[in-house]
Write a structure and sequence with these properties.
heterotrimer, A alpha+beta (242), B alpha+beta (261), C alpha+beta (231), A: 242 residues, alpha+beta, Ribosomal Protein S5, domain 2, 5-stranded antiparallel sheet, 10 strands, 27% helix, 28% strand, B: 261 residues, 6-stranded mixed sheet, 4-stranded antiparallel sheet, 5 helices, 28% helix
Chain lengths: 242, 261, 231
C-alpha cells in the first residue's frame, strides 16, 4: 500500500473515481479454451487486467526430486509480460512472481483431486498481458477455468477476488489508483460452492469490522464471477450455439 | 524437451511431397489465414496480436528515457526480444531464455533494425544526454507452427502503431512513432524433401531445416537465417526468394489495412 | 449413448456444482458425495444409469487400463526393453520378453528404434502408474506404413459408434484400414486420397464430436468421400 493520505479516491457524491459504487466490481469477462496448443486454457479480462492461463498435463513429474509418490504436484508459474505495466518489466522471475506462484499453486492443490495422479505434475502457466491492480486474482480465476477446461478433476472451482480500504472506507475490487494510494488490500481465493477459502493474502491496515465487511464484499463478488466462469465453460461445449 | 518424431509422420510427409500435397490440404507456397489486431494491450504504447492457424503471438512496445552511447550521442536505441515461455507449448520448459527464444528474438530484431525503418536520430531528445530507447517484447502464447513469421508480423505491426509517451516522461507531447517501412519475414521449412511456406506444427515436427527471409518495402534483403540441421542449394534458395517477394506483399497490405482503422 | 445429450437429459456441469441428493444413489466417476449432496468433479455431462450418477468428462487425458489396445511410439531403447510414448502422463514399458520376436539381450535396437510406431496392448498398470505393455497377441505388431492421427479420448465412443457402426462407415467411405487405439491415437492405412478424407473425418470428431449436428455433418462429409467420387 502506498499509503499517501492526501490523494482523493472517493468523490463528493460517495462514488469512486471511476464512478463505481463501494461494493461494485469492475466488469469481468472470461473465455475458455483460447490456446490451441494447451490441454486447457482461459483468458480473464477483469477491468483492464488481462490474464491468460494454460494447463498442460497431468504428465510425469520432472525433475524426479519434485515427484510425490502419493499425489500430483501443481507447478504454477505466474509471469507478467514485459509490456503489461506502465514501466517495462525485465523478463524473468522475480521475488514477487515467485511468491504469487507458490501460494497460487497451493490454493489450486487444495481443490484439484491431486491424489488421483501419483508421481505426476500438472503445469499451470499464468501470463499477465495487461496489469491494472488485481492480477493475482485474475490469474487465479483464469487458472481454475483452464484446469476445468483441461478436464482435471477438482472438488470446486476457485474465484480470485479482492477488497480493500481507501480513505478509511472498505471498497470492493481496487483499481490501480486505489491500490497505489489506498490503505489495505485483501485478495482471496474463494471456493464458490463450498464457501471455503483457499487463497489469502493481505497488506495494509484493517480493523476486525473492516475485515468482515471486506470479506462480505469478496463473497458477493465471488458469486458473480463464478457465474461468468460457469458460463464461459458451458459456452465452449454446449450444443454449439456459439 | 525434445519432441518425439514418429517415423510414420516422416514417411507420410515424404509421400505427400511426392504428390505435391500437404497434410492440411494447402499448396506448397500457400500460407494459413492470418488475423492481425493492433492496439490490443492496454499498458503497451504499441501492440499487436497475430493468429495464424494454431499459433497465437502478442507483441508490445515500451519506451524508456536513457543516456545515449558515448560513440553515438545523437542516436536512440531499438531492442527486440522474444519469450518462448512454457505457456506456448508442452515442449517448452521453464528456465532462463533458451537458445531457441534468443534466436527468434534476434532474427526478428535484425529484420526490423537493418531495414532502417526506425531512424535512430529521430529518437534523440537532447544529444549526448537524453534519447528514447524503444523496446519490442514478443510473447508467444501458443506455438502451432511458424512462430517466426507470426512474431515478425506482430513486432512490426506493434511498432507501426506505437505512440511515444512523451507526456508521461515530461519531454513534450505524445506523438506517433515515425516508422519508414514495413519489413516482413517469410519462413520456409524442408518437409518431405522439398521446401514449403508457413509450416504447421506437424510439418515442423516431421520436417528438417528452415530458412527465414526478411524483405523491406523495396524488396531488399534485411535478414536471413538458416536454422536446424540440413543443407540447401542455391537453386532452392532462388525459388523460395521469389515466393518470399510475393507473400510479403500480401502481409504488408494486411498491416497497412489495420493501421487505417 | 455416453453423451447424455438426448433431449431433456442434456445437463452440463462444472467442478463443484451440485448434481443432486446422495441418499440411496451410487456415485460414479467424475462425481463425489459431499455431505448429503453429489457434486461434479469434472466439466462434463451428467449421466444417470442403474441408480449411479456420474459425469462424462468433456476433456480427458488418457489413463491406461490393462487390456487396452493402443497405438504407441518408441521413445527410448535400452538393451533389453523399450520405453513407449502412449499419449498418457507416463511412458509405457515394453520388456524384451513381451516383444513379438525372440530378442537377444542387447539387440532390442535391431528390432525397433526411436520413433517407430506399434500396435500394443496394456498388460498391467500398478497404482503408481507404472505401465507394462505387451506385443504378444493376435495382430499386435510394428506399424511400418500408414499414418498416425489423434482423436480426443472423450470422443472415442462417438468415433466408433454403436457396435463400431460409425467406424465401419468411415472405413467404407475412404477405403482405408483404420485402427482406433484406446489412447486416442488412430492408425490409418490406405491411399493418399482416402487418408486425406479420414483426416477430415477426425477433424470433424474433434470440432463437433460433442454436438447434436455431428451425425448430419458426417453424412455431409461422406458425400465427398473418395469412393463416392469414383462411383
Amino acid at each position: 500500500m502506498g499509503g499517501y493520505g492526501d490523494v482523493q479516491l472517493l468523490r463528493d457524491d460517495g462514488l469512486r473515481l471511476d464512478g463505481r459504487k463501494l461494493d461494485e466490481m469492475r466488469p469481468v469477462s472470461i473465455e475458455a479454451g483460447i490456446l490451441p496448443a494447451a490441454d486447457g486454457s482461459a483468458m480473464v479480462t477483469h477491468g483492464l487486467n488481462v490474464a491468460v492461463a494454460a494447463v498442460y498435463g497431468p504428465m510425469e513429474a520432472h525433475p524426479r526430486k519434485i515427484q510425490r509418490q502419493d499425489r500430483a504436484v501443481i507447478d504454477v508459474r505466474y509471469n507478467m509480460a514485459p509490456f503489461s505495466t506502465g514501466d517495462r518489466i525485465r523478463p524473468g522471475y522475480n521475488r514477487r512472481s515467485r511468491e504469487i506462484s507458490k501460494v497460487t499453486a497451493e490454493a489450486l492443490e487444495s481443490v484439484v483431486l491431486v491424489e488421483r495422479f501419483p508421481r505426476s505434475k500438472i503445469r499451470v502457466e499464468i501470463e499477465i498481458l495487461a496489469a491494472e491492480a488485481g492480477t493475482r486474482c485474475a490469474g487465479l480465476t483464469a487458472a481454475a477455468v483452464a484446469l476445468a477446461d483441461a478436464g482435471i478433476p477438482m472438488r470446486d472451482l476457485i474465484v480470485g477476488v479482492a477488497s480493500g480500504k481507501v480513505e478509511g472506507i472498505v471498497v470492493l475490487d481496487l483499481d490501480k489508483a486505489e491500490d497505489n494510494y489506498g490503505q489495505a488490500d485483501l485478495p482471496v481465493g474463494i471456493l464458490p460452492n463450498t464457501g471455503e477459502i483457499a487463497f489469502l493474502q493481505m497488506d495494509g491496515d484493517l480493523s476486525p469490522d473492516e475485515y468482515n465487511l471486506a470479506m462480505e464484499y469478496n463473497f458477493k463478488a465471488a458469486a458473480e464471477i463464478h457465474e461468468i466462469m460457469v458460463d464461459a465453460l458451458k459456452r465452449r461445449y454446449e450444443g454449439g450455439e456459439n | 524437451m525434445v519432441e518425439l518424431v514418429p517415423t510414420l509422420l516422416r514417411q507420410e510427409l515424404a509421400r505427400l511431397a511426392e504428390d505435391d500435397q500437404r497434410l492440411d490440404g494447402r499448396a506448397q507456397w500457400e500460407g494459413r489465414e492470418v488475423s492481425l489486431e493492433v492496439d490490443c494491450l492496454y499498458n503497451a504504447e504499441g501492440s499487436a496480436k497475430v493468429v495464424m492457424g494454431k499459433t497465437i503471438v502478442y507483441a508490445g512496445v515500451k519506451f524508456e528515457l536513457r543516456t545515449p552511447w558515448p560513440d553515438r550521442p545523437s542516436q536512440g536505441s531499438l531492442m527486440c526480444g522474444a519469450e518462448l515461455r512454457p505457456v506456448a507449448h508442452r515442449k517448452y520448459e521453464p528456465g532462463p531464455p533458451s537458445p531457441e527464444s534468443i534466436e527468434l528474438g534476434r532474427v526478428v530484431d535484425r529484420g526490423i533494425r537493418e531495414s532502417g525503418c526506425i531512424d535512430m536520430e529521430s529518437l534523440c531528445i537532447v544529444p549526448g544526454e537524453k534519447v528514447w530507447g524503444v523496446m519490442i517484447d514478443i510473447h508467444v502464447l501458443s506455438d502451432g507452427g511458424n512462430i517466426f513469421d507470426a512474431c515478425g508480423l506482430a513486432a512490426i505491426a506493434a511498432l507501426r502503431t506505437a505512440i511515444v509517451p512523451a507526456e508521461r516522461f515530461d519531454v513534450g507531447e505524445d506523438y506517433k512513432l515515425k516508422v519508414n517501412g514495413t519489413p516482413i519475414m517469410s519462413s520456409f521449412t524442408r518437409v518431405g524433401g522439398r521446401y514449403i511456406y508457413d509450416p504447421s506444427e506437424e510439418e515442423e515436427l516431421g520436417g528438417d531445416e528452415r530458412i527465414h527471409i526478411t524483405l523491406g518495402d523495396e524488396g531488399h534483403l534485411h535478414s536471413l537465417q538458416k536454422g536446424l540441421r540440413g543443407v540447401f542449394t542455391p537453386a532452392e534458395f532462388a525459388e523460395i526468394f521469389d515466393v518470399a517477394h510475393q507473400r510479403c506483399t500480401d502481409l504488408r497490405t494486411l498491416v497497412a489495412n489495420q493501421e487505417g482503422n | 449413448m455416453s453423451n447424455g445429450q438426448n433431449g431433456a437429459e442434456l445437463r452440463l456441469v462444472t467442478p463443484g456444482m451440485a448434481i443432486g441428493p446422495s441418499a440411496g444413489i451410487r456415485v460414479g466417476s467424475g462425481a463425489l458425495a459431499q455431505n448429503d449432496t453429489i457434486i461434479a468433479t469434472r466439466l462434463g455431462w451428467v449421466k444417470e444409469f442403474n441408480n449411479t450418477v456420474s459425469v462424462d468428462p468433456i476433456n480427458s487425458a488418457y489413463m491406461p487400463r490393462s487390456g487396452d489396445l493402443i497405438v504407441a511410439t518408441v521413445a527410448e531403447v535400452r538393451n533389453n526393453l523399450w520405453f513407449m510414448n502412449i499419449n498418457g502422463p507416463f511412458q509405457g514399458l515394453l520388456p524384451m520378453s513381451l516383444a513379438p520376436w525372440k530378442v537377444e539381450f542387447g539387440a532390442a535396437r535391431q528390432h525397433m528404434g526411436i520413433g517407430d510406431v506399434v500396435l500394443a496392448r496394456v498388460q498391467e498398470v500398478d497404482e503408481c502408474h507404472n505401465v507394462v505393455l505387451t506385443m504378444k497377441g493376435v495382430g499386435l505388431r510394428r506399424l511400418t506404413q500408414g499414418s498416425l492421427h489423434s482423436v480426443p479420448i472423450n470422443h472415442l465412443e462417438r468415433l466408433r459408434g454403436e457396435g463400431n457402426a460409425t467406424l465401419q462407415r468411415l472405413r467404407d467411405a475412404c477405403d482405408c484400414r483404420i485402427i482406433v487405439g484406446e489412447n486416442g491415437k488412430v492408425w490409418v492405412d490406405g491411399n493418399s486420397e482416402g487418408t486425406a478424407w479420414a483426416r477430415q473425418a477426425f477433424d470433424l470428431v474433434l470440432k463437433s464430436g460433442h454436438k447434436d449436428t455431428f451425425e448430419a455433418d458426417l453424412t455431409a462429409l461422406e458425400k465427398n468421400a473418395p469412393k463416392n467420387g469414383d462411383a
